[in-house]
């Protein structure tokens, strides 16, 4: 065993490692709110000490109290390993189970400095998307994985490995739950409190399910969204050339917007308040130009519109100022959105207009109530400016970041029934939302991803080559492209566009050079596409064309994995968008159909309490077992959602599930009868 393997196998060390210095070069999580009472702070320390031998308690108790005071959380920094954190080739991990080793590969990728947003606080993305709550949990989980055999299952409660439990070969090796709360304790401050106590965490989507693959996933998804948004507003199929897209955020996910805008072929202006974040994206060449001065920006954009340039610009400043200035200057905006982190509005996700980043950060920690008021005020201003643009014809969509939700909570003018919209020449019409006042604007899922992708079973399928070799990834790209081209020949017209977009993507995948961290690829495919691609991979492993296992997975942001009334299921209009049966059924169904690990989370993407979302990982090793598992599980993992979407009377889903039933004799899905609207007119 080498030193790395010894350290993994050892788990929590017997002797205390040296304390770690706080590294100012690393991007650290913001100081969290001081929310615990004195008694609760003692409880948090007692909870943290559970991981360590009593002889270390005097030193650690003091250290953990300091961490809690200074950072608002106990991260156990001293236990952060000295070895480099990255997705190693699978055979470098100690252990007896290849499935467990593949999971270690994925965990280390999620925590690597190159991939994670706040690597030392175990946060992968989204400001608070955690893999584990602290380094003690990481060490323990990795040790269990190195010990487990394929008749055991590791159970993980919000980062805490409860233990290894006897199970069986076909069971998942790991079952993860993140942030599962008794529903009444699922408010944003409950996360602050129970996370500070060390008993729960916000797993985001792919962070807490070990399935994050860096920015590639989001570039692909954002490109598909911008392309389809362009098709939506394109009257004569003229495309996006010369059209202007205004949005905000250059962070973990939002940073994909300018790159996607360039791939889709429009002019993108993205406001970002944090100069460090602007610099990162600029140095990555994901943005072409940076402006701090709005007058100069106005001149530049006019020129770009005239010349129909494909151009991405970062406006280093507040998005509210950008919307307002462009209204004053009468700049026509074709597409508009927002990707500030409004799933996390009070702790750094949204910066209010009129204040610098530093002023806001100080206010957030010292005067949290005033900060909240300023955020609300800013949201009201932002909505007013957006409304002026949409009155002139801008197509604005909510980008699943809870913009409309938080703006409405702040009292902004965003409801469909408000005079602002109803007095327009062409007022927006109801999409049929229930359970809330309807928003004047649709979310990107309501208008774009739902009806064009999810309802046809198309979603973010991904894979990772655990050999860590780029040549293996290139082989899989090739295999996937051939499969899609073959399938396209038989595809009905309804899904031809999807097939084309993804064949195009996979052809350009190598050139786009988007691999950061593990050797991973993403594309959108339906159940048939996912199964056929996975079968071909398994065959390549069987023939030894590829020599190390492949991990299959997906984003939670998919057809079946997520119940989220303001995002993934926002184009469900039968009232069931406020239920979470689909996500729960999905993860249960995946677990007994062959997933290698499953996870179910509270809050991914749009915020704690607003969504239930789940995912899976599946290890392919070229065996017959893997082939049986992939067929059974991938089939369910898509068709569960299609059946539900069809029951909700969504046209695309009714079409897609009917097609699936014709091909699959064992599938019998309950189909809706559609009531005649005229019949209902005379009632109530
Ligand atoms: N990209 C997608 O496909 C997608 C899909 C669904 C949801 N989302 C949501 O988008 C949001 C953003 O995700 P992220 O990972 O990029 O988060 P992030 O926190 O890394 O980035 C958000 C950025 O917005 C900036 N910002 C905040 N307020 C601002 C303001 N008023 N003006 C200008 N800049 C401001 C912040 O400085 C930060 O860099 C999240 O809520 C996420 O759930 C993204």
Strand content: 5-15%
- Give the C-alpha Rg: 25 Å
What is the general shape?
globular
The mean pLDDT is 95
Biggest sheet descriptor: 9 strands, mixed
Attached small molecules:
nicotinamide-adenine-dinucleotide
Q: How many DSSP H or I helices? A: 24
Task: Report the span from N to C terminus.
Answer: 75 Å
Percent helix: 40-55%
Topology:
Elements: H1 3-10, H2 38-49, H3 57-71, H4 98-111, E1 123-125, E2 129-130, H5 135-147, E3 152-157, E4 160-166, E5 174-178, H6 188-196, H7 216-233, E6 244-248, H8 256-264, E7 267-272, H9 275-283, E8 289-291, H10 294-307, E9 311-316, H11 319-328, E10 335-336, H12 345-349, H13 357-366, H14 368-391, E11 395-396, H15 403-409, H16 419-422, H17 444-452, E12 459-465, H18 470-490, H19 496-512, E13 519-525, H20 527-542, E14 550-554, E15 562-563, H21 581-593, E16 597-602, E17 612-620, H22 624-647, H23 651-663, H24 677-680
Helix pairs in contact: 2-3, 7-8, 7-17, 11-14, 13-14, 14-15, 18-19, 18-20, 20-22, 21-22, 22-23
This protein binds nicotinamide-adenine-dinucleotide (NAD).
Summarize the structure in words.
The protein has 684 residues and is α/β, with parallel strands linked by helices. Helix content is 44%, strand content 12%. The strands form 3 sheets. Strands 3, 4, 5, 12, 13, 14, 15, 16 and 17 form a 9-stranded mixed sheet that branches. Strands 8-9-7-6-10-11 form a 6-stranded parallel sheet. A two-stranded antiparallel sheet has the order 1-2. Strand 1 (123-125) and strand 2 form a beta hairpin. Helix 2 (38-49) packs across helix 3 (57-71) and helix 20 runs antiparallel to helix 22. The chain starts with a helix and ends with a helix. The mean pLDDT is 95. The structure holds nicotinamide-adenine-dinucleotide (NAD).
């Amino acid at each position: 065993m080498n030193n790395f393997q010894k350290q993994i196998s050892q788990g929590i060390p017997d002797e205390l490692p040296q304390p770690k210095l706080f590294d100012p070069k690393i991007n650290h999580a913001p100081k969290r709110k001081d929310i615990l009472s004195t008694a609760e702070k003692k409880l948090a320390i007692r909870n943290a000490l559970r991981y360590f031998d009593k002889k270390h308690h005097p030193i650690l108790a003091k250290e953990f109290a300091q961490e809690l005071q200074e950072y608002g959380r106990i991260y156990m920094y001293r236990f952060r390993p000295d070895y480099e954190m990255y997705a190693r080739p699978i055979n470098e991990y100690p252990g007896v189970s290849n499935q467990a080793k593949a999971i270690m590969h994925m965990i280390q990728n999620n925590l690597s400095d190159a991939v994670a947003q706040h690597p030392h606080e175990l946060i992968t993305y989204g400001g608070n998307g955690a893999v584990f709550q602290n380094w003690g949990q990481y060490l323990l989980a990795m040790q269990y994985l190195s010990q487990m055999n394929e008749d055991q299952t590791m159970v993980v409660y919000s980062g805490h490995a409860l233990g290894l439990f006897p199970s069986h070969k076909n069971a998942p090796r790991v079952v993860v739950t993140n942030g599962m709360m008794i529903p009444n304790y699922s408010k944003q401050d409950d996360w602050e409190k129970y996370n500070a106590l060390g008993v729960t965490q916000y797993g985001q989507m792919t962070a807490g399910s070990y399935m994050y693959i860096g920015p590639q996933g989001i570039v692909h998804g954002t490109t598909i969204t911008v392309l389809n948004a362009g098709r939506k507003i394109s009257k004569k199929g003229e495309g996006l050339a010369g059209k202007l897209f205004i949005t905000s955020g250059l962070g973990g996910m939002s940073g994909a917007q300018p790159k996607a805008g360039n791939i889709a072929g429009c002019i993108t202006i993205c406001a970002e308040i944090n100069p460090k974040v602007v610099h990162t994206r600029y140095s990555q060449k994901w943005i072409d130009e940076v402006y701090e001065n709005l007058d100069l920006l106005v001149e530049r954009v006019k020129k770009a519109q005239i010349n129909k340039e494909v151009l991405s610009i970062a406006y280093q400043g507040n998005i509210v100022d950008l919307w307002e200035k462009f209204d004053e200057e009468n700049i026509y905006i074709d597409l508009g959105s927002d990707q500030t982190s409004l799933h996390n509005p009070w702790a750094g996700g949204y910066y209010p207009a009129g204040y610098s980043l530093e002023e806001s950060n100080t206010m957030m920690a010292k005067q949290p109530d005033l900060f909240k008021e300023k955020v609300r005020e800013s949201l009201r201003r932002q909505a007013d400016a957006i409304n002026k643009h949409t009155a002139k014809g801008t197509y604005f969509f909510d980008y699943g970041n809870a913009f409309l939700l938080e703006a409405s909570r702040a009292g902004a003018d965003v409801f469909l029934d408000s005079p602002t919209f109803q007095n327009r020449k062409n007022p927006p019409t109801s999409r049929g939302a229930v359970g809330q006042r309807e928003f004047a604007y649709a979310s990107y899922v309501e208008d774009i991803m739902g009806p064009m992708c999810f309802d046809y079973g198309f979603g973010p399928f991904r894979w990772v080559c655990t050999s860590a070799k780029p040549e293996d990834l290139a082989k899989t790209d090739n295999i996937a492209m051939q499969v899609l081209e073959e399938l396209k020949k038989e595809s009905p017209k309804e899904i031809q566009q999807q097939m084309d977009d993804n064949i195009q993507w996979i052809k350009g995948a190598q050139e786009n050079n988007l691999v950061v961290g593990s050797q991973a690829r993403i594309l959108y495919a339906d159940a048939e596409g996912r199964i056929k691609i996975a079968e071909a991979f398994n065959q390549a492993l069987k023939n030894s064309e590829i020599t190390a296992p492949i991990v299959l997975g997906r984003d939670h942001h998919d057809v079946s994995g997520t119940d989220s009334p303001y995002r993934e299921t926002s184009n469900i209009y039968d009232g069931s968008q406020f239920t979470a049966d689909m996500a729960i059924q999905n993860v249960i169904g995946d677990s007994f159909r062959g997933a290698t690990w499953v996870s179910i989370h509270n809050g991914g993407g749009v915020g704690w309490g607003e969504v239930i979302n789940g995912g899976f990982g599946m290890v392919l090793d070229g065996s017959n077992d893997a082939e049986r598992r992939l067929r059974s599980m991938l089939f369910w993992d898509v068709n569960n959602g299609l059946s539900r979407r069809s029951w909700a009377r969504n046209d695309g889903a009714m079409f897609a599930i009917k097609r699936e039933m014709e091909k699959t004799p064992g599938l019998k899905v309950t189909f809706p009868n559609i009531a005649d609207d005229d019949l209902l007119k005379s009632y109530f």
